Amino acid sequence: MSQPAKRKRVPVHGVLLLDKPEGISSTQALAKVKWLLNAEKAGHGGTLDPLASGLLPIALGEATKTVSYAMDGRKVYRFTACWGEERTTDDLEGLVSATSDKRPSREEIEPMLPRFTGEIMQAPPAFSAIKVDGERAYDLARAGEAVELAERPILIEALKLVDIPDRDHAIFEVTCGKGTYVRVLAEDIAHKLGTVGHVSLLRRERVAPFESAQMVDLATVEECARQGLPLALVGLSEAVAHLPLVRLDEAGARRICQGQEVVVPGLAPPMDQVLRLEDAAARFLGLGRVAGVGRIAAKRLVRQGSHE
Question: Whole-prediction pTM value?
Answer without folding.
Answer: 0.87
